[in-house]
From TrEMBL:
It is an enzyme of class 3 (hydrolase). Its EC number is 3.4.25.2. Na(+) binds at A157, C160, S163. Protease subunit of a proteasome-like degradation complex believed to be a general protein degrading machinery. Keywords: Allosteric enzyme, Cytoplasm, Hydrolase, Metal-binding, Protease, Sodium, Threonine protease. A double ring-shaped homohexamer of HslV is capped on each side by a ring-shaped HslU homohexamer. The assembly of the HslU/HslV complex is dependent on binding of ATP. The active site is at T2. It comes from Neptuniibacter caesariensis. This is ATP-dependent protease subunit HslV. InterPro entries: ATP-dep_Prtase_HsIV_su, Ntn_hydrolases_N, Proteasome_sua/b, Proteasome_suB-type. CDD domains: protease_HslV. HAMAP family: HslV (MF_00248). GO terms for biological process: proteolysis involved in protein catabolic process. It is found in: Cytoplasm.
């Protein structure tokens, strides 16, 4: 279980996540890194769900980015089709956020591809708490995206027992 949130504001896009890995009701690890920067394609990913499943999806997404020469939309659509259409992959239990300079997407195994309307999106067990906090901070403050992500994750960690405040935050300059 985890919390991942992405905020796009001004000339920045930021994706952050906590470090908690839970097995049932037990915290197994508090320092996992669930947000990754894919430097070659200037893309950030974040995942929630089973770690092995999420790493499999990360590998598949990277392969799709290569195949589509860094075109994030085509890579996301191809991943969603492959994930939904393959009998083995269909059983993967994870959600994935991906963001580059232009776009942010949530991808699910049920074939969902969601681009946030307001530049704010979150996944994971604490995702709804982080999403609400990020939207409130975006609408009512002038804080930069990185600060909004950090504060939103801290709020989620204070509410959700499956999230912690050991944060990984990655930032890209975006096309405003």
């Amino acid at each position: 279980m985890t919390t991942i949130v992405s905020v796009r504001r001004g000339d920045k896009v930021v994706v952050g996540g906590d470090g908690q890995v839970s097995l049932g009701n037990t915290v197994m690890k508090g320092t996992a890194r669930k947000v990754r920067r894919l430097a070659k394609h200037d893309t950030i990913t974040g995942f929630a769900g089973s770690t092995a499943d999420a790493i499999t999806l990360l590998d598949l997404f990277e392969a799709q980015l290569e195949k589509h020469q860094g075109n994030i939309f085509n890579a996301v659509v191809s991943l969603a089709k492959e994930w939904r259409g393959d009998r083995v992959l269909r059983k993967l239990e994870a959600l994935m956020l991906v963001a580059n300079k232009e776009k942010t997407y949530l991808i699910s195994g049920s074939g969902d591809i969601i681009e946030p309307e307001d530049g704010v999106i979150a996944i994971g067990s604490g995702g709804n708490f982080a999403l609400a906090a990020a939207r409130a901070l975006t609408d009512n403050t002038e804080l930069p995206a990185k600060d909004i992500v950090e504060k939103s994750l801290q709020i989620a960690a204070g509410i959700c027992v499956f999230s912690n405040d050991n944060l990984t935050i990655e930032e890209l300059d975006s096309v405003a």
